[in-house]
Every structure is written in C-alpha cells, then in structure tokens.
Amino acid sequence: MMTAKSNRVRWWAYLLLGLAAFACIFPLYWMFVVATTDSATATQLPPKITPGGNFFNLAELVFTTVPFVRSIVNSLIVAGTIGVGHAVLCSLAGFAFAKLRFPGRNVLFLIVVLTMTVPTQLAVIPQYMIISSLDWVDTLQALIVPGLASAFGIFWMRQHLSSTISDEILQAARIDGANTWQIFWRIAFPLVRPAAFVLGLLGFVTSWNDFLWPFIVLKSPEMYTAQIAIKALQNSLDVDLGLAMSGSFLATLPLLVLFVFVGRRMVAGIMDGAFKG
C-alpha cells in the first residue's frame, strides 16, 4: 500500500513538473514561431504553431536596422560586470554584517533590508540627477555603477554566511595572524562561493533584462543595450511583431547558452544553501 501511494504521489509530481516546464518553454517557442514568419502570425486564428522559413531574413533586417551586435556586446559588458560585482561586493557586505562587530551594525542592516520595500521607480529621478552631475549620461558606467550591489544580494549573502561559517573558524584564523581581508578572501568566500555564483548569475540576468534605466540614460545607438535595441526596432506608428520577436529571440540566445553551461551549477548552489542547518 505504501509503495502504491508513493508511486501515485510521484506520478502527480512529474505531471505538475511537466506542465510547469511546458508553461515556461511555450512562450519562448511562440516567440520563435513569430520570429520565423510575420506579424500576422501573432493574431492568426487558429494560431500557427509551426515555425516558418523567414527567420534569417528578419535576423538580417535586425542587424541592418540597429547596431545589434554592438548592443549585445554592451549588454555583455554591463551584465558581466554587475554579475561579478554582485558576487564579490555583496559577499563583502554580507560578511561584514554577519561576522564583524561594529557600532550601528544592526541599524545599518535594517536600513538595507528596508530599502527592498521601496519601489525601484522612486529612485529613478535622484539616481538620474547623480548620474547627470557626474557627466555619465549616455555611458555604460551609468548602468554598471548603480547595479554593482543590491539590498537583496547583501541580505542573501549575510544569511548564507551566518549559517555556513562558525565564529570559531574565524577566531582560529585571527589567532594564526590573518587579518580581516585574508579571513574573508581565503576562508569565508571559498565556503560560500556557490551562493555567490548564484547571486552573480541572478544579477547578470536582471541586468541583461533591464529596460527602464537604460532607456532613460542611453541616448546614442552605439551605447544601446540589447533591450533598447529591440525597442529601436519599432517605430512610433507601426509595430512589426515579426521583426521585434526576431530581435527578442536573438537577445535571448546568450541567456540560453549561459544556462546550458551553468544551469546545473546554479541549481547546486541554490540547493547547497537550502540544506544548510
């Protein structure tokens, strides 16, 4: 009886996972279908579910309409730098809040956590004023510097460091003559590297998909990121869905390639944190 019941639960679990996987994959497949045909396919009834043969023509039109290769490179630079910044800087801040003792530590951490309750849109105007005063408008550093760390990343690493590293290990390192930086870089960071890798990957994807802030600060086509280049494919009077979907699919390909290579490591990093005591 127990075996039959276990098998029944397992069958339903696989069914739900299969439905969830289909729900996640189908929009990407539909985007590819529209990208291989034309705008009429998106509104056709019944909808067409087989790809057409117009993808390469639309892709060529994407590359000739906007500097799409340069936009992809810009997105890689911005997202890659922000991903590394999240992994290192948020780990540093999390280590300070988790293992160092200094006046106002709890108050500062509370302020960091409270910033997660503030909508991102409220920070756009003061952030733009700062960027403008630094003469960074229409530059990649206007995208990179504000995104190098986040309140969520600091909270993530602080909780992970608190549950992973015991104070006795740090005290032993200090007795052996290690300073604070050596303790972090040689002891703490290697132990939480899987969590830092996951956080960096999340920062990479978030930066890659960001539209609002790049749309505000970037003016010239050679500075466009991938998302702004896709917006530039559409004019104010007409929207070519086939062209837009083609650009969207091309902009999604780097993320798909990334997850093919690091997806298993990302899941391992998340599960590593999930089973910590």
Question: H/E series, N to C?
Answer: HHHHHHHHHHHHHH
How many H/I helices? 14
Shape: globular
Helix content estimate: over 70%
Strand segment count: 0
Gap between N and C termini: 33 Å
Low-confidence stretches: none
* Biggest sheet details: none
Q: What class, by secondary structure content?
A: mainly alpha
Task: Quote the beta fraction.
Answer: under 5%
Mean pLDDT: 86
Indicate the radius of gyration in whole angstroms. Answer: 23 Å
How are the elements arranged and paired?
Blueprint: H1 2-35, H2 39-43, H3 55-65, H4 68-99, H5 105-114, H6 124-133, H7 141-144, H8 151-164, H9 167-175, H10 180-191, H11 193-209, H12 212-217, H13 226-232, H14 241-274
